Amino acid sequence: MKSINIRPEIETIKDEIIETRRDIHKHPELGFEVHRTAGLVAEKLKSYGLIVKTGIGKTGVVGDLVGGQPGPTIALRADMDALSLQETGDVSYKSIHDGKMHACGHDGHTAMLLGAAKVLSEKRDQIKGSVRFIFQPAEEGEGGARYMIEDGCLDGVDEIYGIHLWDYQGYGTIGIKSGPVLASADMFDITIKGIGGHGAAPQGTVDCIVVAGHLITALQTIVSRNTDPLESTVVTLGKIEGGHNFNIIADEVKMYGTARAYTEENRQLIKKRMQEILDGVAATFGAVITMDYEDGYPPTINHDSATENALKASKAIVGEGAGFPYQSMGGEDFSYYIQKIPGCFFFIGSAPEGSEPMSVPHHCSHFDIDERSLRVGASVFVELIMG
Ligand code: NI
Fold first, then answer.
1. Measured in angstroms, how far is the CA atom of residue 241 from the centroid of ligand 1?
2. How many angstroms does the Cα of residue 31 sit away from the middle of ligand 1?
3. Does 8-182+299-386 match 185-297 in CATH topology?
4. Each residue of 327-363: pLDDT tens digit?
5. Is position 265 annotated as part of the catalytic site?
6. What is the pLDDT of residues 24-42, one digit of tens each?
7. For all residues of the chain together, what is the average pLDDT?
8. Distance CA 114, CA 19 (A)
9. In the predicted model, is pLDDT for residue 2 greater than 70?
10. 3 state SS of 244
11. CATH superfamily assigned to domain 8-182+299-386
12. Predicted confidence (pLDDT) at residue 249 exceeds the cutoff of 80
């Protein structure tokens, strides 16, 4: 049995944290449209006596807690947005909005940080420096963090910390590592144009299905043959469409995919090799191939000293359960914050109690968490500040 030392102040408000999480879960909002959630956050922060600013990064909320003693300003961040997904689980706090669901745990992130804010606001006199609570919209794809930064949420901040609940690991574990923890997440669309014709008379045509076949195979060689095998990269084609009927030679094929890397060098290498392969395959078959490549979030790269602080705080709460090097090729817009200032993004094990490992993945329609993990996350936030 692992020894877990939830902070007593968090233990006393654990029901309130769970209630907040369930309330937000029941009322999911997408992207920048997090009006109700942001309203709830602002109201609670004000009731704790914080200096609250709303409308930061369009619909984000920032709360400042000025401690009684001099010291640095530490930011703690949560994201508030949900996903376009129909919830299929059967819980009492199931989403009441069709096609919207908190399937990534951001409801929990918001609830944990509010819990920590309440506890810390009661310890104001003992706090050395200030704490800035950042609640951002639009983490899922639209990069809400960039808008928060543009609106000055990092001004005067020395370090920033963010937590993600993590259903791939169980309660009582915390994943922390220095360096890259999440990848860059770029998107691309490829269009192949050829010359259609009768399926029985391929002469004189440029068959886009055949071109696509070669292109798919060639693109797989970027990861297997061009990038260093000791450095993780991904090139995925997630969708392909084209053609008209079984006896018609296709005059157009479209492909959609994502590229992932932990370093800017590999990111650029993938992009460059993709273009070279596209041009080469186009020349080989006489097709016209174009690509629309869009840079997504940069890789999330934790800073050493902030990682040490997060690890120390985590060890105080879950002991030996802290420090597993969780790492994934997923993307996070927390990366924008730690491109600007030192910080650490880490993972709180939250797999539902009794579930099979990996059986409740993030972004799935029956996503849920072990709500005890909210106490862990809130306690680590408090520990980070109080030490
Ligand atoms: Ni998420």
1. 29
2. 12
3. no
4. 899 999 999 999 999 999 999 999 999 988 789 999 9
5. no
6. 999 999 999 999 999 999 9
7. 97
8. 12
9. no
10. coil
11. Zn peptidases (3.40.630.10)
12. yes
- Assess whether 139 carries a catalytic annotation: yes
Q: Range with the lowest mean pLDDT among 44-48, 125-129, 204-208, 354-358?
A: 354-358
CATH number for the domain running over 185-297 = 3.30.70.360
Domain boundary assignment for the chain: 8-182+299-386, 185-297
Structure tokens at 297: 């979030």
pLDDT score for 3: 83
Q: What's the gap in Å between 164 CA and the centre of ligand 1?
A: 7
150: number of Cβ within 10 Å: 12
Task: Write out the two tokens for 325.
Answer: 């090097």
Pairing of strands 69-79, 159-166: parallel
Nearest CA among 341, 371, 365, 337 for reference residue 103: 365
pLDDT per residue as tens digits for the range 265-294: 999 999 999 999 999 999 999 999 999 999
* Annotated catalytic residue within 9, 29, 79, 81: 81
| The one catalytic residue among 87, 107, 139, 332 | 139
Q: Alpha-carbon distance 141 to 121, whole Å?
A: 32
Helix (H, G, I), strand (E, B), or coil: what is residue 80? coil
Query: How far, in Å, from the CA of 192 to the mean position of ligand 1?
Result: 34
Q: How far is the CA of 349 from the centre of ligand 1 (A)?
A: 13
Report how far ligand 1's centroid is from the alpha carbon of 106 (Å).
6
Q: What is the pLDDT of residue 1?
A: 47
Q: What b/e string do you get for 302-320 counting C-beta neighbours within 10 Å, with b at 16 or more? A: bbeebbebbbebbbbbbee
How many angstroms separate the Cα of 173 from the Cα of each of 2, 11, 182? 9, 18, 18
Please report, as a single letter, which amino acid is at residue 91: V
In the chain, % of residues over pLDDT 70: 99
Secondary structure of residue 104 in the 3-state scheme: coil
